[in-house]
Amino acid sequence: MSLDETLDIALAQNKAWAYKVAEEDPDFFPKLGAGQSPEILWIGCGDSRIPETTVLGLKPGDVFVHRNIANILHSGDINAGSVIEFAVKYLKVKHIIVCGHTSCGGVNAALGNSKLGIIDTWLQPLRQLRMKHAEELKSLSDKDRAFRLSELNARRSVDILRENPVVIDAINERGLKVHGLMFNVGTGELSTLDTKTDEEDSNARNAAFKLE
Predict the structure, then answer these.
(1) What angle do CA 31, 95, 212 make, to 5 degrees?
(2) 104 belongs to the catalytic site
(3) Is the pTM of this model over 0.90?
């Protein structure tokens, strides 16, 4: 299939989809055009196999989205920080989901030692996790090692979110929930990570990161 044919097919399928949705629910697109009020902020990988709205069984308008290579978060990322602030402070989402996944190319790259280019800088947080958990990761099979690093990365991102002053305020003031999930590309199923914290951890986090 040529490049032009690929785009032509995609555009034709878009028209068919839009027609079908409008026929089934004539108010759907006018409501979307009037504004958005998603309850979920999804922070995930840019991998083409994980379309968050489809995976969650939801519709356009239900999920605000930020995606990047290997769903990496760090406190200095202005792009992600802007998305988080807008979703939490202005859209007032009720849930933030950080989702890692199996068969992640970014994770596999961070487990190797090949020079890849600019992406090496982006993957630095994953390599730091690799170093920190080296003994545990060495004891695992290749498949389990990749899954574990992806899981550790999702947990780390949840921790970073909980250190964000905007997120802290929303947790304290209106009960915003932060979740870590893993998506199995081979089965299509999501599983939850245990990322609960106790009162002592919450108080310590508030003391260090809450801004007045």
Answers:
(1) 110
(2) yes
(3) yes
